[in-house]
Amino acid sequence: MPEACTYATRFLAWWGLALYLFQLGSRRQLDYDLRDGGPPVLANLNRLAGTQQTTLPVHDTLDHFLGHVKLAGWERLRRQMVQRLVRMKALDAARLLGRFVLLIDGTGLLCFRRRHCPDCLVQRHGTHTLYLHQVLEAKLLGPGGVVVSLDSEFIDNADAGGARGRRTEEVKQDCELKALARLLPRIKKAYPQLRFVLALDSLYGCGPMFALAEQFGWSYVVTFKEGRTPALWQEYQALRRACPENALKRQWADGRVQEFRWVKQLAYRDSEDRDWTFNALECTETTAAGERQYFAWLTPLPVGRNTVEEIAQKGGRDRWKVENEGFNRQKNSGLNLEHVYSIDPEKWKAYYLLLQLAFILVQLLERGSLLQRLAAAADRSVSKLFGSLKNVARRLLESIRFVTWAEDWFDPRAAGPLRIGLDTS
Ligand SMILES: [Zn+2]
User: Fold this and answer.
1) Residue 345 Cα, ligand 1 centroid: separation in angstroms?
2) Is a pLDDT exceeding 80 seen at residue 171?
3) pTM for the model
4) Is 165 left (phi over 0), alpha (psi -120 to 50) or beta?
């Protein structure tokens, strides 16, 4: 298709981002909603991209383009966005004891009944077999529930070597730990100056993760579960009883009660006979209705009266946000994470990265100070002004289709001093 060659890269990048920014749900909608969308669409996309294209592409042009562009290009773009947000201090309110919280979690992306490429992960469930692709995501925690994709490691067949005869749970653990061992060194290389605290599921609470974190000068808060490290759990229970003074109780206006307990200097020897010491903390939360939840974590961060609440919240409880804000939102909305935008392995990875880039922009719009100010001027909250986040995307789509965006809205001199503040309420 020679047509793609006539479009500037920047223009096609925005054409791709549009798929997710306007939550179109499928590639074909690019044609229906944008190509045949309205006279201002071409001018508005040119404004965004700083180009002078004279025609709009079709959805196949995007697919063709993504097949040609290297994934590294999208990764570089994401790095620039993250570094800008860090420099603007937009994420600082969510730091934990001065460190950036990096939420790490894996999720399924694509699932087929038949093998679709040589790298499919294979899972047998009784009589049928599933062919999967998964990704391990590292997301920076921001204020107000914002999560910023910082890096993504794809998990495939090579990671599951020797899967035959092993339990699904074991294979999953093996794959995700191997992916983690590729992901963390790459993050260290890209962001050598940032001090992270990794927030992780109990699956990662083992020697290889402790060693990587120590090597890079990072910290971690990992879910502490009896089943993962039984001996350590027993030691914790014994020490906890021995120091009853390590306790803090908080009562909230809504009737919730939180009780924190902690133990310092737990000793642990991993499967390679390396010795580690870290602290443990727990939080029991009881609602006014009497519902009780229990959480526990391991961390080398200093635990004590002044720190346990912050560690439990930002390092522990907020990890669900990767699940909630990150994956569920990307799956259950027009962003359509699990939709098969392409079955070509290189292309669908590009679609995935495009989605991550667009989701950063979507959240900055939804949670940013500019929209808050607009709502405040109308004397309403953002949710009252738009009704739902889906409506924000729809209004954006209406805008690109029916409003010709003025040149001075894109004046870099006016935009330069703007600082994006994020909703911290
Ligand atoms: Zn495959």
Assistant:
1) 7
2) no
3) 0.91
4) left
